[in-house]
Amino acid sequence: MNAARLTLFQMRYVNKAFWRNPASAFFTFAFPLMFLVIFTALLGEGEVHVGGRTIHQSTYYVAEMAAFAVITACFNNVAIGMTFQRDSGVLKRIDGTPLPSGVYLTARVLHALVVSLLLVGITVAFGHFFYSADIPTGATLWRFLVMLVVGACAFCALGFAITAVIPNADAAAPIVNAAILPLLFLSGVFIPIGDDAPDWITWTGDVFPVRHFAQGMQAAFLGNPFSWSDVLVVALWGVAGLLVALRFFSWEPRR
């Protein structure tokens, strides 16, 4: 069996394992919608200035929760899931089989990408029917899909990379959340960043990939100008995460 067929076969197995854990699958899909409802209920009546335009915050949060859904599926789930598999010995057993390690990791990325597409589709449909958010179409749709695919792969690579600093499974969720939650706030995913925000918040958001990914998603939903530099920054972070993962990723439990 060639590498492509092996990857698809392994992806099918990962997909089955994901859906056979209904509690994890349910909350993976419920979190973005839950936050979308909460934020729009609390802040959705106001307006926010984005890209020189004034839009309702309910529409703004549809785009942001789509970005949050991808980050959750690709960074949080991959990092925490791989750490638990590492500590339980699953990765060590897989590494001892003839299955190439690249095939296994690629299958995890492809599965995360499929879950991301489902999450974004559900979020977009929910936002369209309940908050009248626009759906990306035409050339905008293709740029949106490029941003989504690049972002999903990049955050998966970063998820693999952060496992290098997670000492054990019990520390996985706290470390992953500590790494991503501040960036979600500083990048305007949860709360819009105004022009009067402190310079250090703007600088921090510009350095890390979350804001650039969120801006790329916003461009499709809100009709803002699309910037390929956002795609480039996210891709560079993905390459950096991949290099760190290749150097420090461990298949065996930490001692």
Topology:
Blueprint: H1 3-19, H2 22-43, E1 47-50, E2 53-56, H3 57-87, H4 90-95, H5 101-131, H6 138-162, H7 172-186, H8 199-207, H9 209-222, H10 228-248
Antiparallel strand pairs: 1-2
What would you note in describing this structure?
This protein has 255 residues and is mainly alpha-helical. It has helices spanning 3-19, 22-43, 57-87, 90-95, 101-131, 138-162, 172-186, 199-207, 209-222, 228-248, and strands at 47-50, 53-56. α3 (57-87) crosses α9. It is built from 10 helices and 2 strands. Helices cover 75% and strands 3% of the residues. β1 and β2 (53-56) form a beta hairpin. The protein has a two-stranded antiparallel sheet with strand order 1-2. It has one domain. The mean pLDDT is 88.
Number of strands: 2
Strand content: under 5%
Low-pLDDT runs of 5+ residues are none
Q: Which strand order does the major sheet show?
A: 1-2
Distance between the amino and carboxyl termini = 35 Å
Provide a count of the helices.
10
Radius of gyration: 18 Å
Helix content: over 70%
Structural class based on helices, strands and sheet pairing: mainly alpha
- Following the backbone from N to C, one meets helices and strands in this order, namely HHEEHHHHHHHH
- Overall pLDDT, averaged? 88
